[in-house]
Amino acid sequence: MNGLKVYKTIMQIFCKEECNMSVLCCDGLSTELMYGLKSHDKVRILDVYSDPLGWNNSNSIALLSVEKFEEQFTNFEGLICFYSLSSFLIHNGIEEMYKVLHRMLRNNSNLQILALLYCDVHNRRDINLLERIATTVLEVPLDADNTLLSTVHYSSGKVSSKSVEYKISQNYEFNLFSDIKITNKAAPVKKPDPTANLTFNLRLRDEEKEARNRIQLPYTKVQS
């Protein structure tokens, strides 16, 4: 649920800017997804969830088809929201979906894609392949609250990753989104050993100390 909450919060940013948006709902009701988000006339909902098999003569099957998807959004300018991209990958396969998304983003500089992906559904190879065409990846761990891993892919080929702490309001706005500073404890400083680099050893073993104490030096008067 944390991943969906972050996803909706990013959607809210685009909703407030009143961007041209097409929302593909495959994993839930559109009313539940859009609840709490600012609605405007430029938001278009494409409902696949309510009739996924097209039994009601809807175009749900066509929307899930990667060929029809590319045909419908070839010249689209704005943001396409996948809820979720996992459903499209299961229906079409990673190779076809990757090629279509890569081609659309390469040929249309006015197109943006926001996708929710369930990493536990796919293998690491498929995830890595999709990350190649992503500019920003926000990974929300299942066992961590209010922290995520942000990875940015630059056009130069540089990749930057950092841990981020975040807080989301009831209105799906980021109250906090800041880097987590990792404080490293200073290692204890060892006192220098003056005998460490000597070629002979000035330190005596216990048996050497005992032997030294038994030695009688010349002109030493022994108490009887």
UniProtKB/TrEMBL annotation:
Q: Tell me a GO biological process for this protein.
A: tRNA wobble uridine modification
Record keywords, A-Z: Cytoplasm, Nucleus, tRNA processing
Query: Where does this chain mainly localize?
Result: cytoplasm
Q: Which GO terms describe its cellular component?
A: cytosol; elongator holoenzyme complex; nucleus
The GO terms this record gives for MF are: tRNA binding
Q: Which pathway features in its UniProt record?
A: tRNA modification; 5-methoxycarbonylmethyl-2-thiouridine-tRNA biosynthesis
Domain of life of the source? Eukaryota
Give compartment(s): Cytoplasm; Nucleus
PANTHER family documented for this protein: ELONGATOR COMPLEX PROTEIN 5
**Name of protein:** Elongator complex protein 5
The species is Stegodyphus mimosarum
